[in-house]
Amino acid sequence: MPQIHLDEETVERLDALRVDDEEYDEIVNELISIYEAEELTLFRGSDMK
Predict the structure, then answer these.
(1) Residue 27 near residue 14 (C-beta atoms within 8 A)
(2) What domain of life (predicted)?
(3) Which residues contact 31 (CB under 8 A, 6 or more apart)?
(4) What digits encode the pLDDT tens for the residues 5-22?
(5) pLDDT above 60 (res 31)
(6) Is 32 in a helix, a strand, or coil?
(7) Residue 41: helix, strand or coil by DSSP?
(8) Is the sign of the CA dihedral 34, 40, 46, 49 positive or negative?
């Protein structure tokens, strides 16, 4: 598994999002899913006229 290094501010922001001692990988996966869904929505929305 790849390793990443986060600065202290990023860790604090992730900690603020944690629910019930949720693991960081769960939070990051959730954020990626949200980002991908928004990107898809923006992409499809720009195709409509």
Answers:
(1) yes
(2) Archaea
(3) 17
(4) 889 999 999 999 898 989
(5) yes
(6) helix
(7) helix
(8) negative
